[in-house]
Amino acid sequence: MRPKKTRWVKCEPGERCFIPQHKSFGSLKGIFLSLDEFEAIRLSNFEGLKQVDAARKMKISRPTFSRIITSAHKKIADALVNIKAIKIEGGCCEIIKRRKKGG
Description:
alpha/beta; Arc Repressor Mutant, subunit A; 3 helices
C-alpha cells in the first residue's frame, strides 16, 4: 500500500467532539471523522465548492477528494441516524497557517 499524500487543511475545528444531547455518556457509541474528512465537508458542503476546486485547495486529486467526501458523508449519516457522537481527529493533514495582514 502506498503512503497517503499530505492533505492541506485551512480550518481546524474548534470543537472536536459533538455528543447527542439525550443519550447517557456511558452507553454512547461514536464515529471518528478525520481532519481531511472534516475539511472536505467544509469545502464542499459549507463553502459550496465543486469537487475539483476543493481538491485543488487540499492539494489532492479529484478522485481522492471524492473518496474522502464519500467516507465523511457515510460517517456523518451513521452518527445522525444511529445517534452516535462525532469525534474529529487525526488524518494525514497539515494545517495551513493564516498570514497576518501587513506582515
